[in-house]
């Protein structure tokens, strides 16, 4: 039970590290390569804000989705590599070899037939 709690705490901290990695290290160079685009501010505006009625803007923030998708790919890759390394370091125990099976049906029938032939 304690192992699970430790895993949750470490996972939460790892999520913060990945968020910082994506936001501060990976996305700025990608933004420069795409002409200075900040992915987190990309959005498709469905309805603009109206200051007269104090209505807020309605938008689909697909840039934030792109950031989250990149974070997911990084976390997924990291977890895959960690699990792969653990499986290599601690291989599963091999199953005991199966017990030798008895004679087949044909062999049993042949043995019975030979015994019947030897009886008068």
TrEMBL record:
Q: Name one GO molecular function term.
A: mechanosensitive monoatomic ion channel activity
Domain of life, source organism: Bacteria
Instruction: Report keywords, A-Z.
Output: Cell membrane, Ion channel, Ion transport, Membrane, Transmembrane, Transmembrane helix, Transport
Major place of localization? membrane
User: What membrane topology does this protein have?
Assistant: Multi-pass membrane protein
Segments crossing the lipid bilayer: 58-83
Q: Which SUPFAM superfamilies does the record match to this protein?
A: Gated mechanosensitive channel
**NCBIfam families, per database record:** mscL (TIGR00220)
Tell me the protein's name.
Large conductance mechanosensitive channel protein
What's the name of its gene? mscL
